[in-house]
Amino acid sequence: MAEKQYVIFKLCGEEYGVEINHVQEITEYKKATKVPNVPSFIEGIINLRGNITPIVSLKKKFNLEEGEIQENNRIIIINLKNKHVGFIVDDASQVLTMEEKQIENPPELLTGIDRQYITGIGKVEEKIIILLDLEKILTEEEKEEIKNM
């Protein structure tokens, strides 16, 4: 039985997971510098150890209720076409190992673009964890905009 490890993070009280091998690092929240004329879900850019890193608000991208930035907010950094991109989450504090039998395909009611980035639904005890592919959350056009920032 194949096992995969997931970084578990929270958005608006719900738990999400992303495969650990897609994550470069998790860092504390840093206020982003605003950039004009970018999509509304891009918070701006930060300097991450000498690299200019665009920061995406997953709450804005998913049309979730935005709240104040808290002390436990984190930025999950992934490598997107050889460029680091950060995603702001409410909390990212756990790595979880799941077996294939604990993961179901996304429900049929998800259609279109949403289905592309939801890779599965993890079931751990009584909890449901929505598994995401952060690389597929952005459209090709959005990825190109970020690459050119």
From TrEMBL:
Q: Which domain of life is it from?
A: Bacteria
Tell whether Cytoplasm is among the UniProt keywords.
Answer: yes
Keywords per UniProt: Chemotaxis, Cytoplasm
Q: Which InterPro entries match?
A: CheW, CheW-like_dom_sf, CheW-lke_dom
Q: Which PROSITE patterns match?
A: CHEW
Where does it live in the cell? Cytoplasm
> One biological-process term from Gene Ontology?
chemotaxis
Cytoplasm as a keyword?
yes
Name of the protein this chain belongs to: Chemotaxis protein CheW
Q: Provide the species name.
A: Natronincola ferrireducens
